[in-house]
Amino acid sequence: MHYMIMNKTAEKIVHNFNAGPSILPQEVFEEASRALLDFNGTGLSILEIGHRTKLFQSVVDEAVSLVKELMQLDDSHEVLFLHGGASTQFFQVPMNLLNEDARAAYTDTGVWAAKAIKEAKLYGNVDVVCSSREDGYTYLPKSFSVDTSSAYLHITTNNTIYGTQWQDLSLFYDKGLPLVADMSSDILSRQLDFNRFDLIYAGAQKNIGAAGVNVVVINKSCLGKVKKTIPTMMDYRNHIEAGSLLNTPPVFAIYVCLLTLRWLQKKGGVIAAEKRNDKKVDLLYDTIDRLPLFRGTVAKEDRSKMNVCFVMEDPSLESGFVGLCEEEGMIGIKGHRTVGGFRVSLYNALPYESVVALTGLMNYFAQKQG
Ligand code: PMP
């Protein structure tokens, strides 16, 4: 009855809907496994090559140029691979862009946005220009005004926990101040004018590769404007100058990014990824909306195409549905512990067949309830 796909090993059938770390393309797993034993026929593992060798330099160079190509970045934008997860960017951004006596504008659209606000407050003044916190972050607040003398405007393009995503980013363009975006959970999943952003950051572990590295895109013109002394490892300018090799970088994580970026490029880049993602997400939301048993939890116009959140009208049925999903090898569908219900993540590497399998089970479960 259900479509099944093989993931990683022939012995186990898994549909991986994890929110992150999450599914990567099968060929990335295979290539990365080979490189653990013998990297590019060198007889060395990727784990034992020096980060200052030509071998690794070519990994970084190709990864940087693929990000530039996939995002169609202009020459004023630099691409960095940095440690520390997106949470480090929550404070590295204000450290580099915000003076103590200045103000920064933040949108408060979810748990991660709120964490970014908390960290920025350690470095200067924060204006929360809009918030849906009081309503459980179930929609995106679109009416706001920004003081153009603010150091920058910070947004979270996709709210991983609540399942909302800004669909029209032009709302934030041309505001007369630098635009900073946390794109951790939707980077490279849809076409955007990435040059409109002065700083983009994303933990790699959803759409780009393995945990342990961030991709950071910076328009150089917004740097060098703060008065304070920035610790060496926190100053973006030092990383730009050193080409992401200021100290020992997360070599393997960057390599997995390279493999994932190559895969994305080979599959037609961001335009093709968006088409594949739309097909997956349309099937899932159509199923949720068609079956009275299920209900989406956020405003329809703000629904995320990466993290689909829903509940069952009768919560007592939820554990039965989860059990059935587990039997069928579906993992990662439980909602975040703060929200409950279900969250199904549909990152770039998730095959359409996995969504067909899940919606097949939803239909089957609904029929069984009569
Ligand atoms: N921002 C967003 C939108 C996220 O989804 C996450 C993690 N899920 C983070 C930031 C934090 O990322 P990390 O765990 O890499 O610090």
Feature tags:
16% strand, binds 4'-deoxy-4'-aminopyridoxal-5'-phosphate, three-stranded antiparallel β-sheet, single chain, seven-stranded mixed β-sheet, disordered N terminus
Portion of residues within helices: 25-40%
Largest sheet: 7 strands, mixed
* Number of DSSP-assigned strands: 14
Secondary structure class reads alpha/beta
Biggest β-sheet: strands ordered side by side in the sheet: 2-10-9-8-5-3-4
How would the global form be characterised?
A: globular
Quaternary state, please?
single chain
Strand composition percent: 15-25%
Would you tell me the overall average pLDDT? Answer: 95
pLDDT < 50 stretches: 1-6
Distance between the termini: 19 Å
| H/I helix tally | 9
Order of helices and strands: EHHEHEHEEEEEEEHHHEEHEEH
Please compute the radius of gyration using only Cα atoms: 21 Å
What is bound: which ligands? 4'-deoxy-4'-aminopyridoxal-5'-phosphate
Please outline what is shown here.
Helix content is 34%, strand content 16%. It is of the alpha/beta class.
Q: Could you please describe the fold and organization of this structure?
A:
With 370 residues, the chain is an alpha/beta fold. 34% of the residues lie in helices and 16% in strands. It has helices at 26-37, 54-71, 85-97, 111-120, 236-241, 251-266, 269-290, 318-327, 352-369; strands at residues 15-16, 77-82, 103-108, 125-131, 153-156, 158-159, 164-165, 179-182, 199-203, 214-219, 294-296, 307-312, 330-331, 342-345. It has a seven-stranded mixed sheet with strand order 2-10-9-8-5-3-4, with helices on both faces. A three-stranded antiparallel sheet has the order 11-12-14, with helices on one face. Strand 6 and strand 7 (164-165) form a beta hairpin. Helix 1 (26-37) packs across helix 6 (251-266), helix 2 packs across helix 6 (251-266) and helix 3 (85-97) runs parallel beside helix 4 (111-120). 4'-deoxy-4'-aminopyridoxal-5'-phosphate is lined by residues 20, 85-87, 112, 156, 160, 182, 184-185, 203.
